[in-house]
Amino acid sequence: MQTLVTPEAALSTVLAQVSVLGSEKLPHKVVLGRTLAQDVVSEIPLPPFDNSAMDGYAVIAADLTSANETTPATLALVETIGAGDVARHEVTSGQCLKIMTGAPLPVGVDAIVMREATRPNGENVEFLSPATRGDHIRRAGSDVERGETVLRAGDVVGAAQWAMLASLGAAHVEVFQRPRVGIITTGAELVAVDVPLLPGQIHDSNSFALRALAENCGASVADFRHCGDSTTEFEEILCEVCAMCDVVITSGGVSAGDFDPVRDVLRDRAEVHFWKIAMKPGKPVMFAHFEGKPVFGLPGNPVSVMVAFEEFARPALLKMGGRRAWKRMEVPVRLQSPLRSPAGKTEFVRALVRSENGSWSASISGDQGSGRLSTMTRANALLVVPPATTFVAAGETVMARLIDCPEIE
Ligand code: AMP
Ligand code: MG
């Protein structure tokens, strides 16, 4: 019998066999979701100038030393400035200036007093308490200094990073190319979602799972093809897709059946790195190079294909797309019901993980048959059951890999 590779060894092989793609300089408006290809070093301080953190009054703190409710300090109001204005007056002792949040600090002042601690009085303002120098002032460079490395190559541009790039005035940003993925589904039984089923047929669902999973990794699906179970047809399609893409992902036809074209074509024509993994679900995974492109031959069963993608194709796409990190967050979870698992294989058990009363718990999302897509729709984690573990009792702890964290009810 052929020895199965462990998932860990298979992942190391995958990561060693795929390379980081090149980069491109793009306008700021299109880089959301992209991966930075260069460290971002600030050319300006943030904030760019000293400014007020409050709507209030700009004062000289020494003018308010003895201010209190009964004997307020009274200062002459010389000007009002909003964010975007620059004060015309230099403030001297006995004067104050009304200022809004974000307005530049006027020359001469050293503190901001919030409105709540003041009382207007005609042309003057009464201050009801003392102030300390520096109160409510945001200093230039207090968030980011000029020359500071703010973001690193390999970081994803999410909301905060996109906003930060805008704050820095980064009108163009060097980002990694998105891996162009080709998806090929195989199977004579498959029909499109809008075609009524004839006996023996099912709707193709894997192409949608793969497309979504690939896009979630920042990849773009450059080509999508369907193929029956003929090896000649599959080889032709594979050649065409390889020519257009950086990486190819196939579904089905890679197992031990009579009509498994992916297995036959890759075995005979490609450089195969591994086939069959000691894991459940997702044992029949073939990883190869065909015409210089990495090809993931993933299983056909709808859960197997998703789990195999998660374990191997996802890290590969993230690495190719320049990400620094591809490990999922893992948390120890308490099982709500007992779990049996086969010896000698790592099992990835679909589960719903939630945090309750300060601890993480997991309920298994149903029968673990690899065709049961419904259990995947109710899972936000894969419990990782090591090969030597055959039973875990309710209340015991296992590690959960968080694969999708939507809002919880
Ligand atoms: P295979 O690996 O080709 O033997 O397929 C294993 C199982 O997965 C079979 O029951 C197939 O009908 C099913 N299957 C294969 N490809 C797809 C697909 N694209 N969408 C839904 N089910 C599929
Ligand atoms: Mg098939």
Short account of what is shown:
By secondary structure, the chain is an alpha/beta fold. Helix content is 19%, strand content 32%. The strands form 8 sheets. It has a 6-stranded mixed sheet with strand order 7-4-6-5-9-8, with no helix packed on it.
How would you describe what is shown here?
The protein has 409 residues and is an alpha/beta fold. It folds into 4 domains: 7-22 and 177-320, MoaB/Mog-like domain (Molybdenum Cofactor Biosythetic Enzyme, Chain A, 3-Layer(aba) Sandwich), CATH 3.40.980; 23-46 and 142-176, Molybdopterin biosynthesis moea protein, domain 2, CATH 3.90.105; 51-138, Molybdopterin biosynthesis moea protein, domain 3 (Molybdopterin biosynthesis moeA protein, domain 3); 330-402, MoeA, C-terminal, domain IV (Beta-clip), CATH 2.40.340.10. It is built from 7 helices and 28 strands. The chain has a 6-stranded mixed sheet, with no helix packed on it. A hairpin with a 2-residue loop joins β24 and β25 (359-364). α1 (7-17) packs across α6 (302-320), α3 packs parallel to α6 (302-320) and α4 crosses α5 (261-269). The chain is elongated. The protein starts with 6 loop residues before the first helix and ends in a 7-residue tail after the last strand. Bound molecules: adenosine monophosphate (AMP) and magnesium ion. Adenosine monophosphate is lined by residues 185, 187, 189-190, 202, 204-207, 251-253, 255, 257, 299-302.
